[in-house]
Amino acid sequence: MIKFILYDDHAETFQRTSNIINRSMMNYEFDYRIEKYSKYDKQLENTINTDSCQKIYLLDIEVPMVNGISLAAKIRKKDWNSVIVFLTAHEKYRKTAFDERLMILDYVCKAKEYHRRLDETIKIAINALNKNKNTLTYKFNSVIHRLPLNDILYIVKVPANKKCTIHTVSGNTYEIGGSVAKLSKTLKGNFKQSHKSCIVNVDNILTVDSCNNIITFINGKHTNLLSSRMRKSFEEYVLDHK
Question: pTM for this one?
Answer without folding.
Answer: 0.61
